[in-house]
Design goal:
This protein has about 170 residues and is mainly alpha-helical. The chain contains four helices and three strands.
Length: about 170
């Protein structure tokens, strides 16, 4: 019995600490811990092989074996909720149209709000020459604020473009 390298390397230390002692234990065989990346725990070698590879016997400590999860058969969808069955994935067409309509309405409202914010930001930006504030006697502070405004406008334009793409995906 040997663990796959990814288990030995990543999970073994956590498994040794977290798995209760009532789990399955190796019986009647000596388990060896072999050095090197990845560390290998095995009972599938003779004492001479273990000695040649520099492995040491683990005694007095039960070794816990955790079976790997079984893969789902091909074509079986993952259940979206604990009680869901594969046949439950269908949604009534009228309900789906209502959901799509709600999604379009919500995205439309959000797009309108974001476009308004973008227009306000561009007005304040004033083509790269916003009004100076009283606390900006130092020109470097003013330039820093202008750069922040420019970056915020760029982000807001990207947000608006993303909302338009989402609306286009939903169609009319």
């Amino acid at each position: 019995m040997s663990l796959p390298p990814f288990l030995a390397r990543r999970l073994w230390p956590a498994l040794v600490l977290l798995v209760p002692a009532t789990a399955l234990h190796a019986q009647d065989k000596t388990v060896y811990r072999c050095p090197g990346p990845p560390v290998l725990y095995t009972d599938a070698m003779s004492p001479q092989e273990a000695k040649d590879k520099g492995c040491r016997a683990i005694e007095g400590t039960p070794v816990t074996v955790i079976p790997a999860p079984r893969p789902r058969p091909a074509g079986t969808p993952a259940a979206s909720s604990p009680g869901a069955r594969p046949g439950d994935a269908r949604v009534d067409p009228a309900e789906q149209r209502a959901r799509d309509s709600d999604a379009r309405r919500i995205l439309g409202e959000e797009l309108r709000r974001e476009e308004e914010r973008l227009a306000t930001m561009k007005r304040e930006f004033n083509n790269g020459e916003p009004e100076r504030r009283g606390d900006e006697r130092n020109f470097a502070k003013y330039q820093e604020r202008v750069a922040e405004m420019r970056a915020a406008i760029t982000r807001k334009e990207a947000d608006v473009a993303a909302l338009k793409r989402e609306l286009a995906k939903l169609g009319s």
